[in-house]
Amino acid sequence: MLKKRIFKKSRNFIILLLFILLLSAIGISFCIGRLNVPLSEVLKIFLSRFIPIEGTWTANMEAAVLNIRLPRILLACLVGSSLAAAGACYQGIFHNPMASPDILGASNGAAFGAALAILLGLGSQLLTASAFLFSLISIFAVYLIAKISPGQRTVNLILAGIMIGSVFSAGVSYIKLVADPTDQLPAITYWLMGSLSGNSLNDVLFTFIPIVLGTIPLILLRWRINLLTLSDDEAKTMGISTDKLRLIVIVCATLITAASVSVSGMIGWVGLVVPHLARKLIGNDYRYLLPASMLLGALFLLIVDNVSRNLLPTEIPIGILTAFIGAPFFLYLLLRRKYS
Amino acid sequence: MIDISGLSFSYGSNRVLHDISLQINKGDFAFILGSNGSGKSTLFGCILKLLKPEKGTVSIDGVPISMLSERELAKKVAFLPQKSSAIFSHNVLNMVLMGTASSLSLFSIPQKKEEEISKKALDTLGIGHLINESYNKLSGGEQQLVLIARALAQGGDTIILDEPTSSLDFGNQLKVLGHIKELCKNGYTAIVSSHNPQHALMYASKVIALKNGTILCAGDPHDVINTDMIKKLYDIDADSNTLLGGVYK
Question: Which ipTM score applies to this complex?
Fold first, then answer.
């Protein structure tokens, strides 16, 4: 009895702790950079938007905080939490611990859309829109193929995801081949590495809407996702319309994945590693796992992004760092796993 | 009470159940015996609405299941697979809580009331102390009891179990069956598929022997189970002494 209450409290406590850690990381992220801004000035810059405060900061500081760091920090949190949430959901509903957000080809679709936009010389907003569009197209194609093909739906989805993913990835290779090697090719290559830099508040808003639209149903349905981790027959005889529920979860997880990768590029490993770390911390109950994954994902990507922009004089693309940090970390989890 | 009449089912052109009619009363502990492929699982699928029968009806408490939604059926009948195979292990309480899903609306999350129901179900089976354990780390017998507790939390009075003892050691087989027998004394109805006629003799109130999708015989275990029936059911040729030391007359 007592043990249980403590356990439940401790899970809420972990979530609270993650939230506080995230807030602190956000605060620190505003301060550090090429131009160091003291926290007090950061707070004053924000307050001055609402109430008149005597300016003790420089114009450079204000520009760094509001125009560069604010969108970037928001984006790191949004993308990190989305990828982690989508990964956690996919792992559960596909009964597959290796599932990650790009399992249905969302990233490859987005990459194709982005590469195409660069080839056509479209601006950054159109590039994001094109990436988002092709990401949705690829997932829609995957779903359609899985629906009309006979056999087990979830296996079909994964196989169709691999197939459509490689078609789009071949498309990216072709675009790279025909792209202008002096400016377009590097731009494509750079986009594929993933980066959170160079986005305005408008870009953030563009991803914010689909991410919120996808996240809210997932949060509301989070306990029911537990039932999808059981066999279909079990869940059905417990009164769950498994096909409908799984479809809702797939649509939402896909929407937030597409919105994330279309603005950040290919950021791997977050959606795979973070949910597993959250499982270690808080268990497999999606009531707690989903919020914990989201907070942890936001925290992880924010920290990695700070490393990416501060470690070296030139920025390291974040996709490279997440792989550098994510893969060994995953290996560590694998090696110290005590249960079979 | 479950009433099945004229039930037939085919996978494509392969007919698996032919014109099955049977009745299982409230409080019955029914054993379905039959060799692999005799149609036991298909029969369960039809009762649980996982499969759509070609012909015939299944009624529960007088209501045809075709008139019931998945949720309404779940409130009457619970199902236990041979093994629950969640790839990520849930703790026991959460596993049992899932049984209450049919009584919760889409966006609700179980509250105190559902937790009380789940705890009571665990206590009924004498495994209240396992509440915080990880399900995948439990022994096979304990896992079955947790799944039975989940069935109780589901709120119906009929439980269908697919070979509940197939992966258990001898002691746990008897323990699990003993618990089910106890539930039947308290008004639950249980239907199990089994490969063990001896268990049927020990626990069943009714035996249904399926062969190639038809009912070979049905009735009181002591009337129905004998050497002759065992030979026919499993296509073996042996005398009563060879068959498990002569327990079958």
Answer: 0.90
